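chain and backbone:
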Amino acid sequence: MEITTVAVLGGSGFVGQRVCHALAAAGYRVRVATRDRERAKKQLILLPTAEATVADIHDPAQLATFLRGTDAVVNLVGVLHDGRGARSFQEAHVGLARKVIAACRESGVGRLLHMSALCAGTAAPSAYLRSKGEAEAAVRESGLGWTIFRPSVIFGRGDGFLNLFAQVLRFSPVVTLACPGARFQPVYVEDVAAAFVKSLSRLDSVGRSYDLCGPRVYTLRELVEYVGAVTDRRRPIIGLNDGLSYLQAFAMELLPVKLMTRDNYRSMQVDNVSPGDFPFGIVLATLEAVAPSYLGNRTPRARYDRFRAGRGTAVTSDE
């Protein structure tokens, strides 16, 4: 069956926006579910083949109506910290996956692309990874034409990963770092989006799961050091042992803004890396080639240059 119209769940998020742009660029019509149509329209304004549809995707009837008339669905919905209701791991990951499967059957949608996470599994050490594993199991047993993607941490302009480190370095003269030896294989968001789009035209991707990892493995300490170098905010880093890492995660869990939780700590007990090749022959962007383009804007020198540019050449009379 030819795929012409693709429904995207989570299309307004960091990864979702890139996937929508990549789908539109490839000639697909894109339908994005949203609760805020005006906000979504602004994000999609440059995509003539994309439309925003108001729908509560956690309501089975509204979800089935939203999917009706589409040929494939991309489920990118996920939460990093366990919350309540639709923000809980069980509902956002497992519950929604099951609702999407049921809605696909009811609406006659046979193709499902599902976003999971590297190291997901029902026996994984963290609730986050276990819930992702439960969702994967539901997708695999769905009887649909499914493809699962399992990315490592994703970086790119507007990410919540490297930018978080940049914020910490901005306000902390010394960094006490939990799990400094945790290993990651960061992958560029545009490469992730490309993998989703290419899989739609690849029959050999049906019934397969793909690990999406970048070309290089880093420890958490190395990543923080790299961000410090790029932003010109090098800070002393004190790596914490397992016991102190757990205590720090517990303390941060109590803050209004959760930078880290005990469940994050448990996730980092497993190396977030994979030896497999990136699918579909996509040439990967390196972190070093991309990150300076957005992290470099945070340096004092960059802010000074922007200030000068805004005032023209007449910055001072004795320049």
Summary: The two ends are 67 Å apart (CA to CA). The chain is about 40% helix and 15% strand.
